[in-house]
Amino acid sequence: MPYRAGVTLAMLHEEIVACRACPRLVAWREKVARERRRAYADWSYWGRPVPGFGDPKGRLLVVGLAPAAHGANRTGRMFTGDRSGDFLYAALHRAGLANQPTSRTRDDGLALTDVYIVAALRCAPPENKPRPDELARCAPFLDRELALLPRVKVVLALGAIGWNAFLDHLAHKGVALPRPKPRFAHGAELELPGTPLLLGSYHVSQQNTQTGKLTAAMFDAVLARAIQHP
User: Under CATH, to which class is 9-228 assigned?
Assistant: First the structure.
C-alpha cells in the first residue's frame, strides 16, 4: 500500500473498507456479521474494515485497538454502538470535543471537533487479540491516514497496542526512537523533536472501566493534558 500523490482521505477510506489482506480477520468479521448477536438480530452488520472518523483538521488523534465485533464491526464507525464508545464519547463531550455524549449508529448526528479517531487494526479480531503479522499489514493505513491529517499535534494511545502502533509509525518515518523503546503506561508521555506529543491511557474497554482500572476522572485528566498541549 505505497503512498500515492493526490489520494484524499475519502479515497483512502475506500481502500481501507475494501481491504481483504488478512484471511483470518476477513473470515471472522464476516462470520460475526452473518451470525449476529441475538440483541442485534435485525441489524445489517457492517462486517468490513472500519476507517477513521472525526475532524480531519483536528489537533488530537486517538488511536484505539480494533473495531469491536458487535460495536464498530456492526455499525461501521469507530467506538460506535458499544460500552467502550459510551465511555469515550461521554468523555469527549465533557471536554467539548463532541456535540453529543453517545454514539449509536453512523447516522446519529455525532460530530467531533478537533479530534480524529483511528484504530491500529481496522478489522475486528477474534477474542479482540490481533496477531503481530496482522498489525504489520494494517500499519501502512495509519501511516497514510496520518499523512492526510496535517494538524495533529497530540496522539492519545488507548492501550499498549495503540501506543506501539504510533511508535512504529514514527520508526517508519525514520524517527530515531529512544532505547530501550518507551513502554506504555497510563499517563505516559513521549515527545521527540518534530513529532506529536504521544500520551498513553488505559483502553476504554469494559474490562478497564467496569473494574475501576480506568475511571472517568483518570481519562478526563489525560484528555485535559492533550487539550492543553500547545
Answer: alpha beta
